[in-house]
């Protein structure tokens, strides 16, 4: 029987399946990313919204970095590492979904419960009891981060807790979409399993323009995948800002 | 040789062009055309210069975005036919809507918005109760045509409008129609794909956008095709089929893709069975599930909707990312073991797993036919259950069916009579119930680290409440069989 006490056991439960060889017809379709729109934003800024719950990525300077970056083109802080298939119930358990993200005080409360659903095999808690914010501003994850329920409370809770960006091997699509639509966390993809090479507490920097993740603690650097079609939406500041910029809704 | 007309013909039909061979065998110094070497396996059809066949999902996107042709990977604005929200996301959606469109804004179409309280209803949690009030106030303010209200929490039957689980209510109330686009603030919105439509879950912000505009920006998904053939064995249900598929492709096997289900087996499935199948595509990461509409679909819709609809079907030459062929006669009853829906196992190989409880309910396994199946197995056994067995009908209508519909082969007994005789708990008020845990006082919530077998859709850590709870997902047949023994049990032990 599966045991929750050993995180290795949890990750071995995930099956990386290959397509069965017995498929009778196989049409391989490499879907190239076809942007049917061109990005309207040429510089990397993230517009802020006056209401309290729309965030700009917070930049935390590390003590080891003599010249902290103040540009919105990078994120800097300590990272928290999680494994594969972290579903939204673990990011924000269902019992907290009575909190309404559009209400400022409930938005804050959601932050206090971010990742509280992780099993006890995760020794460090993401948010300390009694706190609303996490000391970790970057999450490093494995495959399929944010799978399961479509609850937007998930990226909201992370954002409310102070997370600026997530670097995952891959995302579940609804979570990715919600992150982009809300602008709460910047969802980046790595090319390798950075969750195997980073540890909770490592000091990292994400350079958006260079598509780079730098782990200052280990001294290693990792290529990040380009943000792709979501880029213009994120850069505009979310789906509404993007829709206004492209004329889909009046400004 | 009319070389110039040859070149112009070639140029207009594709990217590769030929260098003409001079009849005089003399090298011409005038460059007429250059042939580029082929660097990738790219058929002319992918350049868009040739019209390709489309899958039914692509066709639905094309129609909804007013295009004649599109391909997977394109981002398009589509018109939404039906938008659904419930009590836990509704308030957040309303917040976004008012923030972005103004306090006095009106929804894009008061008849295309369906608001269904179903998640945290029968609880004393004040915020949960307040959330139902919020969606009621909004529905009144906006004159929303379809708001399935509940005001008397003490007696669900005293609420004539109340339905229950949103995905089942959408189907039962005729809001699911072939060829349409349905989006909802719940990941299991994909259930409606059973009706041959595109249906997917979205978050509050996207939903607020839809409320104001009736449009959403979507990327056209490529399609995975699942061909299921063979006569469905009488010990298998659609739940076994989808558990088999998820186990095969993994929880991320269908990410960003459509899952299309066809084949002779699919054609024999009822609408509720098709709903079970499409319900869990999200557990494979799927963007949507879809089953072609046929006589079964049209019959189901006959008495439920008068809105006209136009079904679409995949072209014979449509392109698929992959095709899986499954001979259902070779399948066996399955479970998804803790803690992942893709942790597939044979029920018969888990017979040493001792259970603390069995739960039969939810959009996945709490429909009328799910209970009829469970009752059929309990009847075949004649025994009593060995563990607490929770019965939570999805909607008011399902609840009524438990008490009125005769179970085939029982001599006129209802599901409830059979459940009662077998020692199951009385059916509880229709709602999502304990499928996702919920507020601490939710009926059948797992508040201790127990082992539960359920007909629900997810078994990640903490899903039904306690973080150390162990959840085995299974079909209603397997659930009933397991309730009778107190261990995970293959239903063939009772069905022959």
TrEMBL record, chain B:
Residues 59-344, 349-486 form the Aconitase/3-isopropylmalate dehydratase large subunit alpha/beta/alpha domain. The keyword Lipid biosynthesis does not apply. One of its GO terms (molecular function) is 4 iron, 4 sulfur cluster binding. Pfam families: Aconitase. SUPFAM superfamilies: Aconitase iron-sulfur domain. Its EC number is 4.2.1.33, 4.2.1.35. One of its GO terms (biological process) is L-leucine biosynthetic process. The lineage of its organism: Eukaryota, Viridiplantae, Streptophyta, Embryophyta, Tracheophyta. InterPro entries: Acnase/IPM_dHydase_lsu_aba_1/3, Acoase/IPM_deHydtase_lsu_aba, Aconitase_4Fe-4S_dom, Homoacnase/IPMdehydase_lsu, IPM_dehydratase_rel_enz, IPMI_cat. This is 3-isopropylmalate dehydratase. Keywords: 4Fe-4S, Iron, Iron-sulfur, Isomerase, Lyase, Metal-binding.
């Amino acid at each position: 029987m599966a045991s929750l006490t050993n995180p290795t056991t949890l990750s071995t439960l995930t099956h990386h399946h290959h397509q069965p060889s017995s498929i009778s017809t196989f049409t391989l379709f490499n879907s190239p990313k076809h942007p049917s729109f061109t990005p309207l934003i040429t510089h990397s800024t993230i517009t802020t919204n006056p209401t309290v719950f729309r965030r700009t990525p917070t930049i935390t300077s590390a003590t080891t970095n003599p010249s902290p970056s103040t540009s919105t083109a990078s994120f800097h802080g300590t990272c928290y590492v999680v494994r594969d298939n972290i579903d939204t119930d673990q990011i924000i358990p269902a019992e907290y979904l009575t909190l309404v993200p559009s209400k400022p005080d409930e938005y804050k409360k959601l932050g206090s419960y971010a990742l509280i659903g992780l099993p006890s095999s995760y020794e460090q808690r993401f948010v300390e009891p009694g706190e609303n914010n996490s000391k970790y501003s970057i999450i490093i994850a494995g495959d399929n981060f944010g799978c399961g329920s479509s609850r937007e409370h998930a990226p909201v809770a992370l954002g409310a807790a102070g997370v600026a960006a997530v670097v995952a091997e891959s995302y579940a699509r609804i979570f990715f979409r919600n992150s982009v639509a809300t602008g709460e966390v910047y969802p980046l993809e790595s090319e390798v399993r950075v969750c195997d090479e980073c540890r909770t507490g490592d000091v990292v920097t994400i350079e958006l323009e260079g598509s780079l993740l730098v782990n200052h603690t280990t001294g290693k650097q990792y290529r990040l995948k380009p943000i792709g079609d979501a880029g213009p939406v994120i850069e505009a500041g979310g789906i509404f800002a993007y829709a206004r910029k492209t004329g889909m809704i009046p400004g | 040789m009319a070389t110039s007309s040859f070149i112009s013909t070639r140029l207009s039909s594709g990217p590769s062009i030929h260098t003409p061979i001079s009849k005089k065998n003399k090298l011409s110094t005038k460059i007429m055309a250059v042939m580029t070497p082929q660097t990738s396996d790219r058929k002319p059809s992918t350049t868009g210069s040739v019209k390709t066949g489309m899958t039914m999902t692509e066709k639905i996107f094309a129609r909804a975005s007013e295009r004649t042709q599109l391909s997977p990977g394109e981002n398009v604005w589509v018109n939404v036919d039906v938008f659904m929200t419930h009590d836990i996301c509704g308030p957040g959606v309303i917040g976004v809507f008012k923030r972005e469109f103004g306090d006095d804004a009106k929804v894009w179409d008061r008849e295309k918005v369906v608001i269904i309280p179903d998640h945290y209803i029968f609880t004393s949690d004040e915020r949960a109760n307040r959330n139902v009030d919020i969606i009621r106030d909004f529905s009144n303010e906006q004159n929303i045509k379809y708001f399935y209200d509940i005001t008397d929490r003490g007696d669900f039957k005293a609420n004539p409008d109340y339905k229950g689980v949103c995905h089942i209510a959408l189907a039962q109330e005729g809001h699911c129609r072939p060829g349409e686009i349905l989006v909802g603030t719940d990941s299991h919105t994909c259930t409606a794909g059973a009706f041959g439509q595109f249906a997917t879950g979205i978050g509050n912000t996207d939903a607020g956008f839809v409320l104001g505009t009736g449009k959403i920006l979507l990327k056209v998904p490529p399609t995975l095709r699942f061909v299921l053939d063979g006569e469905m064995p009488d010990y298998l249900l659609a739940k076994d089929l989808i558990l088999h598929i998820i186990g095969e492709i993994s929880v991320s096997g269908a990410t960003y893709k459509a899952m299309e289900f066809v084949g002779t087996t699919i054609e024999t499935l009822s609408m509720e069975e098709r709903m079970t199948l499409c319900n869990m595509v999200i557990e494979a990461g799927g963007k949507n599930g879809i089953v072609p509409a046929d006589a079964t679909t049209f019959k189901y819709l006959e008495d439920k909707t008068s809105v006209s609809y136009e079904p679409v079907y995949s072209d014979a030459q449509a392109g698929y990312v992959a095709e899986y062929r499954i001979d259902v006669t070779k399948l066996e009853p399955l479970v998804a073991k803790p803690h992942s829906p893709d942790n597939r196992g044979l029920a018969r190989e888990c017979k040493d797993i001792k259970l603390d409880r069995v739960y039969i309910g939810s959009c996945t396994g709490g429909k009328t036919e799910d209970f009829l199946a469970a009752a059929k197995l309990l009847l075949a056994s004649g025994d009593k259950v060995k563990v607490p067995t929770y019965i939570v009908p999805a909607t008011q209508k399902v609840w009524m069916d438990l008490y009125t519909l005769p179970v085939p082969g029982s001599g006129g007994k209802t599901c409830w009579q059979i459940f009662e005789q077998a020692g199951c708990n009385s059916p509880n008020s229709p709602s999502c119930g304990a499928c996702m845990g919920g507020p601490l006082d939710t009926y059948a919530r797992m508040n201790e680290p127990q082992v539960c077998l359920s007909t629900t859709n997810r078994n990640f850590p903490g899903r039904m409440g306690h973080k150390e709870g162990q959840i085995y997902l299974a079909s209603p047949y397997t659930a009933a069989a397991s309730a009778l023994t107190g261990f995970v049990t293959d239903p063939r032990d009772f069905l022959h």
